[in-house]
Amino acid sequence: MATKLARICLARPFLRTLSTAPPSHLTLLGQQYPTDSITNISPTIISKLPLRLHTQPFHPLNTLRTLIESHFPDYAHLSSFSPLVTPYKNFDELSFPTDHPGRSVADSYYVNKDLMLRTHTSAHEIDVFRSGKTKWLLTADVYRRDEIDGSHYPVFHQMEGARIFSSDASGMKEVEEDNARLSQHLSQSNILIEDILHITPTNPAQPSHDPRHSELVAVNLKLSLNSLLLHLFAGVAGASKEEPLRVRWIEAYFPFTSPSYEVEVFFRGKWLEILGCGVVGQATLDRADVPHKMGWAFGLGLERISMILNSIPDIRLFWSTDPRFLSQFSNTDRKISTFKPYSKYPSCFKDVSFWLPLGEDNKKIHENDLCDLVRDVAGDLVEDVKMIDSFRHPKNNRTSLCYRINYRSMDKSLSNEETNALHSGVVSRLQDQFRVEIR
User: Fold this and answer.
1) Is residue 4 a part of any domain in this protein?
2) Is the same domain home to 102 and 188?
3) Of 113, 120, 336, 427, which one's alpha carbon is 20 to 30 angstroms from that of 203?
4) Which residues form the FDX-ACB domain (predicted)?
5) CA–CA separation, 118 vs 315, rounded Å?
6) Does residue 264 share a domain with residue 376?
């Protein structure tokens, strides 16, 4: 399951492609697919589809995936699902409301109206449950249209874990026994847990669930994840009896679990959100043809945790092929390595100001389109994009926007000529694609 609901669309606008029609077909992972009026997948995103960083040997994301899998050795470990899914699988099967912002073309990548790139690993949850697996971890690349800065990238990697039990007396006995085992382990470990009530009026058991059973499953979820966080963070944090690892639980909301929680770890002086989780929605299990089961699921972002554990300062680095980056994670014992910056190259920012077109064109706008355009032109040579000015002319009612684009390579110094060429390409694409008037 996703660690957050799909990000609410920013109020700040930008543009959908207006003047450039997509090709009639796109080739994705060796297959051709027809396009239509909502196609918005960009060449940069298409180029990422085959890479699957979480499977590349000695990549920090692969190391983290392996560490988590080693903590759940008797779970099925899955990582080969295609990123192409139907909107029904991505949203409807998981009880997302019809007006959820994640469905928007501003937030998600669509091949056509019937096919999209998954926005979370939960898109495969029902298929895995239906296959008969009761304990599993699933790792995959996921795709969301997003802003450009050091912690956001339109492709990232999630791991989802789930465990389900028979909802009868024998299943609940299994849960109780596992809870006793985990409780004993944690009571002897260097961890301090700030817990909350498992079920409350604002975080209820599902109507079809016996509240006693829901609470047992919620406790099993919490104990299982507290144990995982101890496994991942205690050594790096130097947890001891005097300074234990601190973990706290917070009520949350997800469309496909209830009760639901977020988990934070106190690490290097501040609380950090790590993952989201909850008791699996019974509608999900019913659709998976396992109606007499109940259980829990969690989802975490591998980049987010790796940036914390490995001290990686910029999410773009995960896509670097520079040996100075990759060689730092080529250890054979699969331990967490701390990233050592090999250089900090200077940034070079350029501003672009423009008038938006009038009329209907001005109503179909979103900032994420600018970010996709910039990525297509400059790739990972852009550190961030920020709007620094916006105003509406009082006489002609036209809107002017100004964006600052910060160019910086993670691997080399960019010359002024290189930066000017990149920025010229961005400006040209803005004019050609969106009919803006450069100021």
Assistant:
1) no
2) yes
3) 120
4) 343-439
5) 20
6) no
Domain identity same for 278 and 202: yes
Q: Which amino acid, residue 303?
A: E
Distance separating alpha carbons of residues 301 and 240, to the nearest angstrom: 27
* All residues at 6 or more sequence positions from 336 whose CB lies less than 8 Å from its CB, including other chains: 63, 64, 67, 235, 236, 309, 310
Higher pLDDT, 49 or 95: 49
Of 160, 191, 149, give the one whose Cα is nearest residue 375.
Answer: 149
Strands of the sheet with 245-251, listed across from one edge:
76-78, 135-143, 155-166, 293-301, 270-280, 257-267, 245-251, 191-194
Banded model confidence at residue 353, pLDDT cuts 50, 70, 90: very high
Q: What's the token pair of residue 93?
A: 């099967």
Q: How many residues does the chain have?
A: 439
d(CA 366, CA 369): 6
pLDDT at 270 over 70: yes
Q: Given its phi and psi angles, is residue 98 left (phi above 0), alpha (psi -120 to 50 degrees) or beta?
A: alpha
Residue 351 in tokens = 């501003």
Measured N-to-C along each axis, helices 367-378 and 416-434 cross at an angle, to the nearest 10 degrees, of: 130
> Which of 329, 363, 398 represents a domain boundary (last residue)?
329
From 128, 157, 118, select the one nearest 6 (Cα to Cα): 118
Predicted pLDDT at 15: 43
Q: Which of 22-31, 202-211, 279-288 has the lowest mean pLDDT?
A: 22-31
Contacts of 59 (CB under 8 A, 6+ apart): 53, 318, 326, 329
Q: Minimal CA–CA distance to 140: which of 29, 243, 53? A: 53
pLDDT band at residue 10 using 50, 70 and 90 as cut-offs = very low
CATH number of the CATH domain containing 260: 3.30.930.10
